């Protein structure tokens, strides 16, 4: 009752004041007289109330169909009929806001339907009010209400305009309009409307195009408004809050944001690009995310001078210390406190935090905190996954809010047990804050990009997209960008350019017919304009090429979608030429795109088999290919078998009856599938009639080699040094007793040689040896070696919790392990302790005892100074150390045997001792190592000339014995691309088919039609690239364990022999191979890889050939190799334990290695990362 009395008193006071001044107030009936006494007061309740207490509007328009304009209703005094004032009337503002327009001054709008004599647009009108009228600052929250009302008024008019013109555009865009199907396109808000889903999708596509053309970003920054800035506080009147003056806040924020961009350009000598997203998020204040690509990358040695995650000394800089305390102190971020800055395997930088309280500091930029006096978060982003975080804000569109309309004294409030049905009562609406409204009114962009992106149209033949333009306007043309692209000259300069490349390098201009063309102009056609005939000419861009992209097309447009996919990857001269693949013109774009491998074909397995058969493959090669197809393709296995079983058993039929030959072929397939974790039964194929136990197979394999094995181990024993002989004799004495041993040998001490001799000695007595390794590559030098996960049936999963072997104690594998006299585990320090403990538990179950590893003689070997277990997305050394076997209770049962005599570097003992000190991290190499005594190179070209001179670049021997080593995959890819360009011949490019595994899940949130663009820029370690370029004769590494029996395992090197549409033929390379050496060849099909990008809740499925060029490799992948020549890339320093030591120890002497560094850093030390907790006592 009190509030109602207050309302009537205020109404009386303002009526007396306004009546003499405003004609509207004098002549119109007051609204209060229209309100019935029994009217129920209503309240709008937000599910999540906004922070900051600012005024906002909720708008429920979801699409063009639901646009419903509001109107002002008024009654003249003495009148009975209501009158309506549309929102575009100039009388709307004085009627709706009499306090802001006390004299009844007309606002923006029309007096009648003529819509003439309007000197400015709505936005310009509101902008002049907020910038030039003091009342907009004085009236505070009323001015905020005016801002959101007037801006939503503007949005409504724009939606109406789009509604009127959308039908023409839809008619031209839709491929097969059906009167019986609703026209959904008509009601979609187009990309020209800021905040629509199409607009957000375009922003994502533009950003991806920039990243694809100009490389991945360098820095990611976040800037937040500080309401205590002097320019804001000085404008506040008595009793006002900063939310009362959104125009001042927005102008202050925008000015400082421009200062941030100017600082970045000046600080780093220019930026290749910048992408900025401003958002509000119901927090009352704008904040911005800025992604930049530096012209010259920031060396990590200078990183601590730009970004610092430590509290400054309050005595040295009290102002900065206070600012960091105000803006950058968060709850503990769970990062390890590290005494040095480092970068992990995902490219994320972990900043130095030397004090306990530094764990609470989010990384600021001290110079920017000084300059801008606000929260400035900065991070280095060496991968494109940072776009996932940025795109989340781009694509979510404008802020949303769930709200409901309730009675002010709702009866339900008295009953707390009644649950509100939010799906029935609440509506999901757009949330428009006063800050956002004013920000848009002031014409500040919520998304900005430099450089801009030109979007090129994509349409089917004869279906150019309709335009909302008058055909009589100057410059109007029916010709789209695509049609002009097809009209380009067929000369060498233009013919090889793809659609995007063409408009990136050239532009069109119109020249009068009587003006002669000069050099640099190429005539395309003669066109007719309102000025008469003109020439359409091409000119090369004088400045740098611009960024271009193809128009985003949703999958529902089918043929247009596939047309876009084809235009993305290959040049064409006509619509027909787009559909022509390898000389054959396909009737549809979908068929052409599928033939090119851009999309999965249900018959790809049949095509792959036919291509291999046509290439005169041997039946053994076909059986291997067939097994890979069964494991990776959805084609029915029974149908595939019925088609090709005659080709698969052809060699066996020459020596055996058909039934027995078929059985032998099935036995081979069963072995291959077993290595892939599959079986014939799972594929629906018959099991072989004759099956041999694993124990019998193992013994039979070596039975025919006993004579050579016995001679081999004796020869090896004679070549051993004293360290090796001592360990050999000791272990041989323990072979019947059992026990756990670890052979600790630095890199190049002959560990593998010793264990090979040990295997021969035990097998010479017709006993079984089971050789396993952390990686498949580590055991290919052993006969019948297996990766540990395969040997012990250990599942491969993200989490190490709850690992349980899949090997049954009654299985053939269990019997093989039970009969084994010796178990060897190569590269044991690289294995996670959970994996080793899982194998231990399995052996205890098999042997039915509680002894470590079931009481077997278990020998682990490796070097804890080399690469440690890889813990994905870990945040420092703690996770790595905790995952190591060194922290397992099993380690207490190991007896350590040491190999100390250098073998690999026996000819350069000085270099060997220096490398050992680097690996031990002893003084003076604890955290940094000088490299000035080694020879240096300046750039990648010099590295390529050293490793692969022009006369040997095509030889496979050089590729096996020489390598470019780098900590980061991006640098590896760059060098591989350089060598590929130097190889003779034409490159064949294969594009992956990328999909989202959870695409049908409602939690997946990416722009429709932009999935392929986003996924194509994602690269993950261990996954083939989206765009794989190969040449015949090029050397590549296999990206998956395909067959340990054939030595075709992950990271093994192969040479490309033949490139076919659905298979790639490769030859396995061994270190001792020569051009005359006959090595086995294999046909590899496309297989499916899965990976989850960082910060994503969805999984990418990438279908690609399991290959990657192998002239360069990472530090983690080079372990175990002995190389003749090495270039060590330290332009970016190492980031993980043992990487520097591992890479330096690959060569025999110091003269065989070169260091690639920035010329300015040659005299500086490089970072050395050693986790001393992992090392064994010296």
Automatic annotation (TrEMBL):
It catalyses: ATP + H2O = ADP + phosphate + H(+). Gene3D superfamilies: P-loop containing nucleotide triphosphate hydrolases. Keywords: ATP-binding, DNA damage, DNA recombination, DNA repair, Helicase, Hydrolase, Membrane, Nucleotide-binding, Transmembrane, Transmembrane helix. Its EC number is 5.6.2.3. Residues 720-922 form the DNA helicase Pif1-like DEAD-box helicase domain. CDD domains: SF1_C_RecD. Residues 135-292 form the Helitron helicase-like domain. Belongs to the helicase family. This is ATP-dependent DNA helicase. The lineage of its organism: Eukaryota, Fungi, Dikarya, Ascomycota, Pezizomycotina.
């Amino acid at each position: 009752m009190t509030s109602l009395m207050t309302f009537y008193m205020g109404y009386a006071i303002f009526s007396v004041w306004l009546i003499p001044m405003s004609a509207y107030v004098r002549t119109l009936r007051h609204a209060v007289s229209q309100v019935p006494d029994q009217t129920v007061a209503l309240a709008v309740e937000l599910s999540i109330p906004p922070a900051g207490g600012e005024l906002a509007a909720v708008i429920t328009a979801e699409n063009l169909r639901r646009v419903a304009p509001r109107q002002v209703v008024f009654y003249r005094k003495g009148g009975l009929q209501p009158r309506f004032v549309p929102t575009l009337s100039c009388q709307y503002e004085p009627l709706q806001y009499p306090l802001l327009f006390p004299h009844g001054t007309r606002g923006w709008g029309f007096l009648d339907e003529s819509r003439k004599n309007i000197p400015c647009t709505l936005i310009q009108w509101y902008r002049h009010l907020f910038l030039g009228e003091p009342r907009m600052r004085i009236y505070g929250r009323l001015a905020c209400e005016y801002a959101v009302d007037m801006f939503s008024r503007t949005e409504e008019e724009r939606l109406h305009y789009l509604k009127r013109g959308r039908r023409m555009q839809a008619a031209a865009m839709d491929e097969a309009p059906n009167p019986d199907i609703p026209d959904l396109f008509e009601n979609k808000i187009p990309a020209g409307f800021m905040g629509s889903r199409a607009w957000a999708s375009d922003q994502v596509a533009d950003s991806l195009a920039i990243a694809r053309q100009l490389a991945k970003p360098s820095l990611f920054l976040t800037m937040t408004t500080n309401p205590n800035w002097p320019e804001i506080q000085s404008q506040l009147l008595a009793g006002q809050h900063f939310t009362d003056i959104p125009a001042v806040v927005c102008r202050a924020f925008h000015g400082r944001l421009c200062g941030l961009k100017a600082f970045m350009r000046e600080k780093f000598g220019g930026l290749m690009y910048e992408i900025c997203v401003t958002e509000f998020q119901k927090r009352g204040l704008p904040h911005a995310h800025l992604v930049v690509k530096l012209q010259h990358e920031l060396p990590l040695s200078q990183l601590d001078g730009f970004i610092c995650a430590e509290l400054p000394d309050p005595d040295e800089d009290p102002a900065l210390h206070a600012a960091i305390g105000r803006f950058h102190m968060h709850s503990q971020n769970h990062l390890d406190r590290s005494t040095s800055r480092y970068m992990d395997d995902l490219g994320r930088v972990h900043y130095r935090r030397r004090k306990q309280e530094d764990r609470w500091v989010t990384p600021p930029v001290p110079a920017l905190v000084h300059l801008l006096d606000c929260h400035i978060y900065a991070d280095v982003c060496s991968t494109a996954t940072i776009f996932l975080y940025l795109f989340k804000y781009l694509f979510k569109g404008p802020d949303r809010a769930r709200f409901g309309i309730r009675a002010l004294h709702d009866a339900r409030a008295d009953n707390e047990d009644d649950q509100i049905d939010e799906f029935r009562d609440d509506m999901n609406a757009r949330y428009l804050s006063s800050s956002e409204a004013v920000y848009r009114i002031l014409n500040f962009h919520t998304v900005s990009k430099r450089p801009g992106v030109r979007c090129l149209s994509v349409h089917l033949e004869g279906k150019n997209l309709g335009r909302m333009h008058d055909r009589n306007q100057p410059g109007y043309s029916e010709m789209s960008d695509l049609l002009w692209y097809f009209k380009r000259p067929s000369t060498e300069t233009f013919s090889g350019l793809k659609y995007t490349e063409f408009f990136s390098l050239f532009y069109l201009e119109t020249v009068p017919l009587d003006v002669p063309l000069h050099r640099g102009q190429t005539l395309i056609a003669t066109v007719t304009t309102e000025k008469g005939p003109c020439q359409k000419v091409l000119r090369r861009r004088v400045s740098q090429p611009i960024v271009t992209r193809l128009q985003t097309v949703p999958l529902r447009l089918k043929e247009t979608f596939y047309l876009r996919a084809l235009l993305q990857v290959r040049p064409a001269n006509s619509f027909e030429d787009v559909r022509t693949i390898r000389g054959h013109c396909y009737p549809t774009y979908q068929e052409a795109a599928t033939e090119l491998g851009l999309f999965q074909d249900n018959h790809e397995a049949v095509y792959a088999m036919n291509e291999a058969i046509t290439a005169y493959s041997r039946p053994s090669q076909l059986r291997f290919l067939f097994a890979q197809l069964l494991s990776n393709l959805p084609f029915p296995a029974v149908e595939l078998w019925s088609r090709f079983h005659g080709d698969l058993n052809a060699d066996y039929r020459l020596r055996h009856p058909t039934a027995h030959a078929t059985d032998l072929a099935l036995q081979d397939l069963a072995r291959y599938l077993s290595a892939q974790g599959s079986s014939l039964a799972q594929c629906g194929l018959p099991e072989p009639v004759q099956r041999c136990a694993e124990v019998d197979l193992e013994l039979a394999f070596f039975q025919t080699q006993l004579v050579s094995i016995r001679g081999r181990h004796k020869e090896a024993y004679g070549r051993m040094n004293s360290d090796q002989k001592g360990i050999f004799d000791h272990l041989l004495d323990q072979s019947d007793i059992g026990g756990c041993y670890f052979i600790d040998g630095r890199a190049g001490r002959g560990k593998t040689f010793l264990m090979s001799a040990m295997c021969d000695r035990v097998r010479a007595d017709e006993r079984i040896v089971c050789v396993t390794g952390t990686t498949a590559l580590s055991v290919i030098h052993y006969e019948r070696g297996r990766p540990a996960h395969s040997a012990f049936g250990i599942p491969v999963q993200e989490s190490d919790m709850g690992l349980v072997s899949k090997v049954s104690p009654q299985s053939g594998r269990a019997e093989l392990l039970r009969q084994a006299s010796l178990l060897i585990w190569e590269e044991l320090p690289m294995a996670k302790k959970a994996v080793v403990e899982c194998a231990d538990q399995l052996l205890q179950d098999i042997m039915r005892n509680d002894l470590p590893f079931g009481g077997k003689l278990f020998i682990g070997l490796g070097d804890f100074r080399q690469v440690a277990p890889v813990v994905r997305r870990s945040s420092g050394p703690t996770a790595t150390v905790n995952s190591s076997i060194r922290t397992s209770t099993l380690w207490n049962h190991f007896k350590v045997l040491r190999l100390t005599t250098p073998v690999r570097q026996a000819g350069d003992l000085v270099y060997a001792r220096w490398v050992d000190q680097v690996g031990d991290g002893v003084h003076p190499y604890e955290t940094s190592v000088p490299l000035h005594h080694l020879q240096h190179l300046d750039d990648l070209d010099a590295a390529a000339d050293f490793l692969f001179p022009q006369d040997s670049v095509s030889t496979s021997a050089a590729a096996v014995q020489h390598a470019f080593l780098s900590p980061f995959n991006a640098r590896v890819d760059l060098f591989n691309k350089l060598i590929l360009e130097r190889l003779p011949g034409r490159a064949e490019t294969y594009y992956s088919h990328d999909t989202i595994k959870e695409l049908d899940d409602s939690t997946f949130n990416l722009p429709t039609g932009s999935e392929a663009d986003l996924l194509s820029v994602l690269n993950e370690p261990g996954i083939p690239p989206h765009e794989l370029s190969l040449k015949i004769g090029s050397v590549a590494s296999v990206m998956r364990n395909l067959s340990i029996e054939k030595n075709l395992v992950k990271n093994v090197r192969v040479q490309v022999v033949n490139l076919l549409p659905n298979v790639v033929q490769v030859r396995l390379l061994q270190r001792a191979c020569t051009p005359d050496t006959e090595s086995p060849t294999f046909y590899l099909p496309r297989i499916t890889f899965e990976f989850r990008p960082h910060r994503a809740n969805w999984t990418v499925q990438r279908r690609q050939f399991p290959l990657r060029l192998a002239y360069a490799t990472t530090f983690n992948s080079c372990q175990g190799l002995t190389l003749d020549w090495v270039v060590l890339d330290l332009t970016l320093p190492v980031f993980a334990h043992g990487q520097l030591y591992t890479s330096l120890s690959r060569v025999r002497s110091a003269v065989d290695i070169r260091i690639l560094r920035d010329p300015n850093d040659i005299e500086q030390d490089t970072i050395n990362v050693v986790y001393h907790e992992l090392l064994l006592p010296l």
